[in-house]
Amino acid sequence: MAGTFPAAAERGTDAVVAVRGATKHYGSVRAVDGVDLDVARGELFGLIGHNGAGKSTLFKMMLGLIAATSGDIRIGGAPVTGSGFREVRRTVGYLPENVVLYDNLTGLETLHFFARLKRVPAKECGAALERVGLAAAANRRVREYSKGMRQRLGFAQALLGRPRILFLDEPTTGLDPEAIREFYLILRGLKADGVTMILTSHILAEIQERVDRLAIMAAGKVQATGTVQALREQMDLPLWFRVRLAPPDFESVRAALCELPVLAVEAREDHVAVQCRRDQKMVVMQALASLGEKMVDLHVHEPSLEDVFFGFSD
After folding, report:
1. Residue 180 within any structural domain of the chain
2. pTM of the full predicted structure?
3. Domain assignment of residue 97, yes or no
4. Tens digit of each residue's pLDDT (9 = 90 or more) over 92-128
5. Rounded Cα gap, residues 96 and 117, in angstroms
6. Domain count, the chain
């Protein structure tokens, strides 16, 4: 049944992950506190938050690994507490934040172990190692693997069975820049095949241009959900123009903007930085364009995902 979500099809919805009022309490601690969330089929969805925000707990609840205190969680249309979830779970891959592997097994033996657990043909194991760049290390003991290699091996096991939904908890931990690039190339290919992916990451710059949408969690609650650009606009954070003139001419920029309510005009080494409100963006750009041939470069710096994150979570 891999590749289909029968329960979702019966309900006529494209929301592969649907969470309603989900809570998880440990005594007086509310690790997850009334979360509502929808993730569409084929979406690459980011979940970000401080340590202790509730991300990993929510992941485990969505996977059915821990029971919710209250609320409703459906994966592929099936409640994670229902008998139908067993069938759906065969279409799900999971990479935990801390990958625990058997040091005495080789990489290939490790995947054979997981393949048996998942009832996946052993022939998939070699292809999975090839896909994550570990084919040359297939017969090496895991104890000889670096942290990044262990992470890639964990990713390979998550890909076994050709899952239609992937939960990836801090998936690039320990990876070098080249491996991170290769990881996201794999995700791009999976997305093209309609695979739904939810990932968490502390490296906000890494996911800023890669996720379709994201949710910001703090204190067990979802504080905001949307595209990076939508969240920027919701926060109404100011933006910066970086203007380079030849020769450098701070006063010309100041004069061009003298009638506008800009927030700051600052001389910085070889350029002038201008800060303005988002609703003044086009007016400021038109004023700067009046500098004509004096201006040799203009760059608009939008608030980063980190700026947005701290705006919602502080």
Report:
1. yes
2. 0.86
3. no
4. 999 998 888 999 999 999 999 999 999 999 999 999 9
5. 16
6. 3
